[in-house]
Every structure is written in structure tokens, then in C-alpha cells.
Specification:
This protein is an all-alpha fold and 342 residues long. Helix content is 71%, strand content 1%. The longest helix has 45 residues, at 187-231.
């Protein structure tokens, strides 16, 4: 894969390692290794998710630091991992669906857009956005029930009304009181939250990478011209372009992912807050939990600012998660490449 521009523009041409496509992957190795790697990543980032969820459902909300200290003092380290076993159980099949939909869609849309004559940068961004959207929709079929159960467990140590003995107990009680619909409470909001969030994330990630590599190309081109002038050789100086090592590629991917994760967190924060409230807080007066009633109640507690409760932990979580996930994901694809295909 080649990025960068012509020598006349002052940028050095950058030759990146070839991307591992869906057809190049050993699927069995991909899913088994993926389950192990992403389980570890989820365990490392789970405390930030618990903190964000507590802040979203607490009125009036404490500061992030005060909430974290309160959890640690009252519940110990275990409080930051409430519902983790349930979450991990759902993460494996949800991730499998997500990665399959992502790679298949990206490959299909990318090929089609290029064949239609769309420029390669635009085709890549469009394919990434559509792939992220389709992957989010596919994963939510599995993830929403797990999300509902795990979030109920997350908040019960922080003053939540419901008391559950564990994931199985919570599952039974939700089914008993609300039926199957109870497990899919907030499914529509989950789609409205995660579909655009993933579309924004993958498109931003693609654009951020291209901008960063362009900047590196101009910087490298400037150094090359300076070196040429100092050596008294004059001219443009070819050199065959820049071939960054794997560590540089991973660093650029990590920074691009952090930028994309932060942007997606800010854009979709109100939707995430509404979704979490719908999934965790009961109707109160026995009425049905709807988007309209949830928004009205939320605005009554603190205006539009209430929609951004927990933004700090979510921003940090999504940025760190994005950086860790994408570097892990790219590493996973290289580990899972078929022999001789990469």
C-alpha cells in the first residue's frame, strides 16, 4: 500500500505494509486468537465502563474521582468488575459477529466503490464507514441483552433498586418481570448509538491515518531536500520513498484510533446516556420505558448537561479502547494470515 504524494508536492512517497484482507485470513485462527486477545483488552478497560455507567444513572452525579474512590472504599476492587463475567460471555460471540461483518462489508464495499471510479481515499473512507455501521448492527443482536444484564449488575452496588445474585439470576428476573422485551430494552437506542458511532469511528480512523502519514511524508521530504542541499547535490532526490518499520505503523494506527475514539465519544455521548438510562432504570410509576420519557426525565434532572454525564470516563475509555483494540486487531490479522498469503 502506498501513501503520500508526488515529489513535486514536496512529500516523500510512503510505502506501507500490505493490508491483510478477509480472504487472506485463516478464520479458525482468527476467531480463537481474537477471543483470547480481546478478552484481555476488555478486562483491562472494564473499570472505566463501570465508572461511566454509575455516573450516568446517579443523581446528582459526583465527580469522577469521588465516584471511583467511593466504589473502591465501599466495594473494593471487585466493585469495578461487577457484571464482568456476564459481559465477557457476550463479548466473544458479539466480537465474532462484529469482525465478520466488518471485514466482509469492507471488502465488498471497497471493491465496488473502486470499480465505480471513486478515488481510492474516498473509497476507503466510505467502505470503512459502511463496514463499521453494518458491524455494529450485527453485534447488537447479541450484545444488547448482555449489555442490559451487565449494566444492571454494574449499578446495583451504587444504589440501584434491583438486587441480583449474578448474571443468571438477573437474566431470570428480567425475563420473569418484562419478558424477552426486557432483555432488548434500549435496542433501538443501541442501534442509534453504536451504528453512527462506528461509522464515525472507522471513517475518522481512515482519514486520520491518511492525514498523519501525509504529514510524515512532507516532513521526510523536507529532511531529504535539506540533506541533498547540504551535500551539494541539488535536485529532488529520489530514494525510492519511505518504508516505515512496523513499530511506526503501529504508532500511527494507535494515534489515529485515539483521535477517532475521542471524536465518536463526544458525538454520541447523549445517545449513550439515554440508552444506559433506558436499560438500567425502571419506569418508576409502572409505565413503559420509552425514549421520550427517558429524555424528559433526564433533562429535568440537569438539562442538556445531564446528557454528558460520564463523558470523561467514556472519552478516556473509548480512546484507550480504540488504541488498544485497533493495534490488537491489526496484530491479530497478521497472526491469522494464511501461510504464504501475507
Amino acid at each position: 500500500m502506498s501513501l503520500g504524494a508526488e515529489e513535486e508536492s514536496g512529500a516523500a512517497e510512503i510505502h506501507l505494509p500490505a493490508e491483510v484482507g478477509w480472504e487472506m485470513l485463516d478464520k479458525s485462527r482468527f476467531f480463537v486468537l481474537g477471543a483470547a486477545l480481546f478478552s484481555g483488552v476488555s478486562a483491562a478497560l472494564y473499570p472505566a465502563v463501570v465508572l461511566k455507567t454509575r455516573l450516568q444513572v446517579t443523581h446528582p452525579p459526583p465527580s469522577c474521582i469521588r465516584a471511583a474512590v467511593s466504589i473502591l472504599r465501599r466495594e473494593g476492587l471487585r466493585g469495578f468488575y461487577r457484571g464482568f463475567a456476564t459481559s465477557l460471555t457476550g463479548t466473544i460471540p458479539a466480537r465474532a459477529l462484529y469482525m465478520s461483518a466488518l471485514e466482509v462489508t469492507k471488502s465488498a464495499v471497497g471493491t465496488t466503490t473502486v470499480q465505480l471510479g471513486v478515488p481510492e481515499p474516498a473509497a476507503t473512507a466510505a467502505a470503512s464507514a459502511v463496514a463499521g455501521l453494518s458491524a455494529a448492527v450485527a453485534a447488537q443482536v447479541v450484545w444488547t441483552p448482555i449489555d442490559v444484564v451487565s449494566q444492571r449488575l454494574m449499578v446495583q452496588g451504587g444504589g440501584g433498586a434491583a438486587r441480583y445474585l449474578g448474571g443468571v439470576d438477573a437474566f431470570k428476573k428480567i425475563i420473569r418481570s418484562d419478558g424477552l422485551r426486557g432483555l432488548y430494552r434500549g435496542f433501538g437506542m443501541s442501534i442509534l448509538t453504536y451504528a453512527p458511532s462506528n461509522a464515525v469511528w472507522w471513517a475518522s480512523y481512515s482519514i486520520s491515518q491518511r492525514l498523519i502519514w501525509s504529514g510524515i511524508g512532507y516532513y521526510a521530504g523536507g529532511l531529504r531536500r535539506l540533506s541533498t542541499a547540504e551535500d551539494g547535490r541539488g535536485g529532488g532526490g529520489g530514494g525510492g520513498g519511505l518504508r516505515p518499520d512496523y513499530a511506526t505503523v503501529v504508532a500511527v494506527q494507535g494515534v489515529s484510533a485515539a483521535v477517532a475514539g475521542g471524536a465518536a465519544a463526544v458525538v454520541t455521548m447523549p445517545l449513550d446516556t439515554i440508552k444506559t438510562r433506558m436499560q438500567v432504570i425502571d419506569g418508576g410509576d409502572g409505565g413503559r420505558v420509552t425514549i421520550g420519557r427517558t429524555v424528559k426525565r433526564l433533562l429535568g434532572e440537569g438539562g442538556w448537561g445531564a446528557c454528558y454525564r460520564g463523558l470523561g470516563p467514556r472519552w478516556a475509555s473509548m480512546s484507550l479502547s480504540a488504541t488498544t483494540m485497533i493495534t490488537t486487531y491489526e496484530f491479530l490479522k497478521r497472526l491469522s494470515a494464511k501461510d504464504g498469503s501475507f
